[in-house]
Amino acid sequence: MRKTTLFLLLFFYITVATVAQRNFFYIAPSILFLLALPYLKTIKNYSRASLIVPAAILIYVFTEWILCVIHGERIAQTKENIPLLLTFPLIFMVAKQWLSFTFVARIFAAASAVLGVIAVYDRYFLNLPRALIERQPIIPAGGVAMTLGIFCLFCVFAAIDQNKLKTAALYLMAGLGGILCSILTGSRGTWLCLPPILLWLVWQYRHSVRSGVWILTGVVIALAVLILLPESGMMVRIMEGYTNLQQYFSGENRDTSLGLRLQFWQSAWDGFLQKPLLGWGEENYYALKHAQYVQDMISEQAVTFTHAHNQFLDYAVKQGLLGVAALLLLLLSSWRFFYRIAHTAKTQNQRNAAQCGQILLFCTLTFCLSDVFLSLQLGMVFFAVTLTLLTGMCLQESKNV
Questions:
Q1: 32: in domain
Q2: pLDDT tens track for 112-128
């Protein structure tokens, strides 16, 4: 059973952002759900403190359903939450299977390397304007690639800490593949998490200062080369962002990429202030935006977009404080759980899983600032599988963690 789980996880992470069929990524989680169902009976073996993540998941999903009913909408409209329900039993199956972090890290590395190769193929052999653009929605795909790449960078520091230099070199190459993929997608919002996490990793492994500094220097040089290479398109995207802001604030053009985002955020905040408790719901949100267009608050082009390009503002305007509270409960409770495990872990296996859990949550948080990462099926299915996998690995060493 353990080998089957690892194979399905490898299949999932390699194909999640690379296979063009949009719902292909449900195959592995659906099979894992069926395999994991019998393990739900083991819930009674864990303490309340151990079940903080499962509880937060259920509260989040049921709050979404309740708000749908309140707004007169169908529960089927919350289909992006299906991955959380599919992967929920995975927590308890992984906890009983004693998966090794070494094998899971190799899965992350394989997926990150494959993403790097495919991104180079898309960008330089197929001459596509942005990598993965014909495979998956590129914003969440860029986030998936960046997260996997950063997982590999964490493994680099962990390997050097154990004086496994060859292993560290392999993880470094794999990690740069995922980061390169994110860069070649041109998804600027997915790049924001890299600098602070690099600094955090150096701080976490500060007792190996020399090694940490060399790794950080190497990654920075590699990124600098990518920024300066015209073929990567990274500098072009950065300069486009600067130009977008200039045009927006000068009034020359409000409908650029960043200009539209600023309009979305203004629109969502205005709508939230009008209905702060429960929000407007999906359907009434469109009516709100049309009214804002009539008032010249937003442009005609901004009306056509279905979300606010910021997870928290989108929840605020559509679901009010109740929806935002459920989302924050999911993210912050999970963070508290991983933080506690990282500082009290009995084994390195637990500690590594918990630190990767912290990385996942920080990356997801930054992705949610510039897009609705968790409202997009690709973003949510990646988050759900990874969150439940790492949570299960943190629980597998003891019945009462």
A1: yes
A2: 999 999 999 998 899 89
